[in-house]
Design brief:
The structure is a single chain. By secondary structure, the chain is of the alpha+beta class. The chain has two domains: about 130 residues, MutM-like, N-terminal (N-terminal domain of MutM-like DNA repair proteins, Alpha-Beta Barrel); about 130 residues, Orthogonal Bundle (Helicase, Ruva Protein, domain 3). It binds zinc ion.
């Protein structure tokens, strides 16, 4: 799933590979997927994009945007975006295939569910996109301590820390994936209520949100996710489906795995204590 580190990595790689290329054809019907969500009728994508030149790509929260003249292409959630040079094989199971004039191409396939939007920029209506674009990103300076404290003050005191950090688009692009190491590094249990947080915990959480996401971004994403070129990210996750069976790097103990608020949480019962 695309979260902040991956969307930024992919946008950067798109700028290095497809910017300036001319689009020859666009197909969306190669391998239909029930949970590939298009913007209006995807049959129109070819007409919208054909013959146009790819412009700048950007990341907003967990979304990736490609500007193509008067058109925006926006990807979100489980959109696996891959670049293929002219001699590479194109995966058959794709829900979007864009071919360029130099025989290279871009595909998007769906992992669980994905947004694959192409639309005239002026006509785009998407609340998630607007929020992701407007709100400060933890990767930048305007996401500062004052802003973080304001976010905390705005939620009901019984809200859990997982719900606070990773739901309702409070911090767009911070999802259940990146959440795990953020909480581990801050030594906070995912179920801790906001009202139980001491000043020290709030400070550590703020620092961890900034530092953990920065580290993930600098390493081209998490090792559970792929880059534009299909390589795994170089950030070695501590808490993920891939690594949670390893011993806790702080205390050597075993991690717990549970379902909580529509997703799996991992934590160290020793380092991330839940005290009510
Ligand atoms: Zn531990």
């Amino acid at each position: 799933m695309l979260e902040i580190p991956e969307s930024h990595t992919i946008a950067e790689q798109l700028n290095e590979t497809i910017k300036g290329k001319k689009i020859i054809t666009v197909a969306t019907d190669n391998y239909p997927h029930k949970f590939a969500f298009y913007y209006e009728d995807p049959k129109g994508y070819d007409g919208l994009l054909k013959g146009k030149i790819v412009g700048k790509s950007s990341a907003y929260g967990g979304l990736v945007e490609i500007i193509v003249e008067d058109i925006k292409i926006v990807f979100g959630d489980g959109a696996n975006i891959r670049y293929h040079s002219n001699n590479e094989e194109i995966p058959e199971k794709n829900q979007l295939l864009i071919k360029f004039d130099d025989s290279s191409s871009l595909t998007c396939s769906t992992q669980m569910y994905a947004q694959i939007h192409a639309v005239k920029s002026k006509e785009y209506e998407n609340e998630y996109y607007d929020l992701a674009k407007e709100k400060p990103s933890p990767l930048y300076n305007d996401f500062n301590k004052k802003y973080f404290e304001k976010l905390i003050d705005e939620v009901p005191p019984n809200t859990s820390i997982k719900s606070f950090l990773a739901t309702k688009q409070r911090i767009p692009g911070l999802g259940n994936g990146t959440l795990q190491d953020i909480l581990f590094n801050a030594q906070v249990h995912p179920k801790t209520k906001i009202k139980k947080l001491r000043t020290k915990d709030k400070n550590e959480l703020f620092e961890s949100v900034k530092k953990t996401l920065k580290q993930m971004r600098e390493n081209k994403g998490r090792n559970t996710e792929k880059t534009l070129f299909g390589e795994s990210g170089k950030y070695e996750t501590i808490l993920s489906s891939k690594n949670f069976k390893n011993p806790c790097p702080s205390c050597g103990g075993k991690f717990n795995k549970e379902s909580y608020l529509g997703g799996t949480i991992y934590y160290c019962p020793n380092c991330q204590k839940l005290d009510f």
